[in-house]
Fold this protein.
Amino acid sequence: MDLAELQEVADREAAASKAVRFRVCSAAGCLSSGALEVRSGLEDAVEREGLGENAQVCAVGCLRLCCEGPLVRVDPDGTLYERVAPDQAASIVATLKGGEPSARRGDADRPFFSLQRSIVLENSGTVEPERIESYIAAGGYRSLHEVVREMNPAEVVDLVTRSGLRGRGGAGYPTGLKWGMVAKNPGPHKFVVCNADEGDPGAFMDRTVLESDPHRVLEGMAIAAYAVGAEQGYIYVRGEYPLAIRRLETGIRQARRLGLLGTQIFESPFNFRVDLRIGAGAFVCGEETALIASIEGRRGVPRPRPPYPAASGLWGNPTLINNVETFANVPPIIRNGPEWFASIGTAKSKGTKVFALAGKVRHTGIVEVPMGTTLRTIVETMGGGAPDGGTIKAVQTGGPSGGCIPEDRLDTPVDYESLAQLGSIMGSGGMIVMDQGTNMVEIARFFIGFCMDESCGKCIPCRAGTVQLHRMLSRIIDGEAAEEDLEPLRALCEMVKAASLCGLGQSAPNPVLSTLRYFEDEYRQLLRPGAGAAAASAGR
Amino acid sequence: MATVKTLSIDGRMINAGGDQTVLEAAAEVGIAIPTLCHLDGVADVGACRLCLVEVGDPPRLLPACSTEVFEAMVVRTDTERLRGLRRMIVELLFAERNHVCAVCVANGHCELQDLAVRVGMDHVRFEYVHPGLPVDISHERFGVDHNRCVLCTRCVRVCDQIEGAHTWDVAFRGAGARVVTDMHQPWGTSQTCTSCGKCMQACPTGAIFRKGATVAEMERDRSILSFLVTAREKKQWNV
Ligand SMILES: Cc1cc2nc3c(=O)[nH]c(=O)nc-3n(C[C@H](O)[C@H](O)[C@H](O)COP(=O)(O)O)c2cc1C
Ligand code: SF4
Ligand code: SF4
Ligand code: SF4
Ligand code: FES
Ligand code: FES
């Protein structure tokens, strides 16, 4: 494959594309609410009405407003249909002949859509994830070509460094710096690993990217491999994501067939092979050393770092581990240049961030916004605030490693540092909205319970400490705790944070500490004498 | 590689080999850092967190057993904060399973007991969980009482790295984690166990015991394990 052939594929695809496109969301959310039936309904109607010359039905990735699925969007006018039932499909097609649709029209201009800025998700909802031609027509694999044919590895690392991209898997480590370390560390073999474990409750960003635009991630990985000198890559994806797995398998097969993965890519000496590794869905396996152990076929438990994977990862070799979204940012950075990327976002947090907006908010789904957008813009303006006339009480970011941010801090911009200052983290992008009806102590117990169940059990502070934290919170909730129990709770939180071996234990107390910080009242209310009896009579 | 490094431990300037751990360097000058999962001769896993020391300023907590010394490193092994953490770790262990010493074969010869004394644990501030785990006495010579196990994995590593049998492993996770033999089957039915007794010698508590030993009888002869060190120095296994 060379550039001319790549162009040929794109041209053929463009020539075959029809004036009208019915884009049906075929990501997991909409599929689970019947998108497949809607799609065949549309196809049947197009055929029945003899509109095949003029119109086509496309299975695209997530259209983002997942709560209103199945979603259909029509090109070129951009009309959006929500909660489409299969028997409404024909009426949507009939609009081409001047008919009135029986399906509900959605407002495609609402802030939920208009305030988004798409880099990672630029193809999501337009490209057909199961067809590589569709990705190529959207400019796909051009960045890989440019890198492999026109740049040396050090230039690629430098370019990524200058873009200011930071890891989207949680800690926000500068991506270029990490690539540079793997590139410089000596080793006959190096590996690139895509972390698609995504274990945080409420998070579905990475799944959405993989289901909607798998080639984007493969291209990003190949560029990384070229930059660090790796010939083998692994995508570690949880078994609970069968659709993402299937689309990745399809994508890898297609890319290999076209010579975009495999040997002598773009007729250069660069070889890169990607394999999938299916995880059993353990949260701790997202931790990089546990992930490595799991890929190697061992029990997925963390080990002390250093050595970091960049020096000693898979089978002792230098290994680059990045998150799905991190890799997905790479092709557009190559295409548009590092300055373009660095001009988006805030001083220290560049680009955009994809969030999975969930919980007590009117519009749930996937949003991609520039770094620096305030939490209030995301949950109130875009998300539409709490449903059913409720008011927002807090937003939980960063999953079990993160914390709860109270309503009066919602004007905080989302960037790594600001969220950390509030005692939370960006994390991978789960955002759970809570309304006034939410009991924050229960929320804290929920997250501790999650970490308790997901602890690998290797180190004592995390294994036994989370159990005791859970018990302490339960005693508070049951009204069995007194004033003097708050201090030991804090002390144990600090101990688990400080002494645990890996990030799971080190961050497990964050939801407790952040709710204690902002909602101590709620704890104290439960501590009042007689709270036990009150709770019992309330049937709790 | 192994060039000599100069560092300070508890205010004392010392020299250490570049590939030595903080634990080793400290031991050489007579500073004993508490440990539980560490066992001379097998690879360290950094699991028990008792050997945490403060390094640098602001202090970072690092496990002495699996942290190599570096030039100009400043280590503190016995601060107020470390004493508090260690005590809490030991308390968590006592609360996690059943460690009623009075009815334990290892009473008086137990590293957990020694640790409790050392960290000044006079009572446990946490709720006892006491899960009531099984005791496996299917092996003809040894038994394992999961209620006494602290999951240090010393048995797992000794059996794998010294005996080469890999009979032991860890199964399940979180509070449910347990050491198991073979594919989680009774020890007595194990096809891999050679009955060498190394795991029993390695176990710091009364979890793995010699059958027939009565309360307070289970003295370990750690000198039997001294060959481990020799084996380690000869690099006779792969970590
Ligand atoms: C308990 C735990 C779970 C994690 N889960 C994930 C995950 O699901 N996906 C991910 O990309 N990173 C996860 N991380 C962070 C990774 O260990 C690692 O830092 C990240 O994949 C690096 O990629 P990045 O630099 O692109 O962010 C997790 C970390 C911890 C401690
Ligand atoms: S902190 Fe928790 S998950 Fe991490 S190693 Fe320790 S027990 Fe395992
Ligand atoms: S007796 Fe020897 S072979 Fe058997 S489990 Fe113990 S260490 Fe392994
Ligand atoms: S049985 Fe003994 S040696 Fe094995 S993990 Fe438990 S306490 Fe450690
Ligand atoms: S899954 Fe269809 S809109 Fe997100
Ligand atoms: S002895 Fe170092 S962590 Fe256990």
Remarks:
- Residues A 284, 301-302, 455-459, 462-463, 500-502, 504-505 surround iron/sulfur cluster (ligand 2) (CB under 6 Å).
- DSSP finds 24 helices and 14 strands in chain A.
- The radius of gyration of chain A is 24 Å.
